[in-house]
Amino acid sequence: MFSKNIFKQLWHRIQEDDLPGLAAQLAYYFLLSMFPMLIFLLTLLPYLPIPHHDILGAISRYAPEEAMALIETSLNSVMEKRSGGLLSIGIIGTIWSASNGINALVRAFNKAYNVRESRPFIVARGMAIVFTFGMITVFIVALALPVFGKTIGLFLFSQFGLDDQFLAVWSAIRWIVSALILFGIFTVIYWVAPNVKMKCKAAVPGAFFATIGWTIVSLLFSFYVNNFGNYTATYGSIGAIIILMIWLYLTGLIILLGGEINAFYSEKAKAC
């Protein structure tokens, strides 16, 4: 898939588009949009058969411990002070804020494809909000799989007299499906977000890279921070914030790299 020459061309694109700088911007927007999105998701919990700890548990599989502790503390503090139901006026502002991260991604992808945003503001922002709702919906489905997947597996186990080995395989499949859902999210974002007409399959290389890359980088960074990196000793009480920002920066960088890969192959296809 990659040759030495392709790596050089991609490296040139990374420098030309200033991906490290864009990733830093995304980390800022992700930080601002993360808590509104999670607050909205937690506001839905009374209407869903999903325990509170399952949502935070899904994040904790990838986030470093100190960053996770900061997220839990901040969310608990905000949720305790919130009043009113799901259909309050405040939820509109929450969704608007949560869509800022997607909106920043759209601008970054347009830069990768060297196009301007010609869609009306209402359309562009509306698309970002729809993506935000879509990500929340998919996130709920991804959480429901571990919650209800075990129940389904036990039902099949008892009905068809399958052995214990099947139950172990079924448990592994549930997590593979979660990874496929993540791949689906990236594919749709890479396909629809840029202001470029393209086929869905053109978004697959970047989505595949982002899915594998983000999972590996998140797990490795979490392992490093939890076992070797003592940021609290260096930064004091704001160490957890620094860790969260670095994790969000790495997330943004991986997603942008996926967009650059798609844009690169798109240019090569046009040149042929």
UniProtKB/TrEMBL annotation:
<dbReference type="GO" id="GO:0005886">
    <property type="term" value="C:plasma membrane"/>
</dbReference>
<dbReference type="Pfam" id="PF03631">
    <property type="entry name" value="Virul_fac_BrkB"/>
</dbReference>
<dbReference type="InterPro" id="IPR017039">
    <property type="entry name" value="Virul_fac_BrkB"/>
</dbReference>
<feature type="transmembrane region" description="Helical">
    <location>
        <begin position="26"/>
        <end position="48"/>
    </location>
</feature>
<feature type="transmembrane region" description="Helical">
    <location>
        <begin position="85"/>
        <end position="106"/>
    </location>
</feature>
<keyword id="KW-1003">Cell membrane</keyword>
<keyword id="KW-0472">Membrane</keyword>
<keyword id="KW-1133">Transmembrane helix</keyword>
<feature type="transmembrane region" description="Helical">
    <location>
        <begin position="168"/>
        <end position="192"/>
    </location>
</feature>
<feature type="transmembrane region" description="Helical">
    <location>
        <begin position="204"/>
        <end position="225"/>
    </location>
</feature>
<protein>
    <submittedName>
        <fullName>Ribonuclease</fullName>
    </submittedName>
</protein>
<feature type="transmembrane region" description="Helical">
    <location>
        <begin position="127"/>
        <end position="148"/>
    </location>
</feature>
<keyword id="KW-0812">Transmembrane</keyword>
<feature type="transmembrane region" description="Helical">
    <location>
        <begin position="237"/>
        <end position="258"/>
    </location>
</feature>
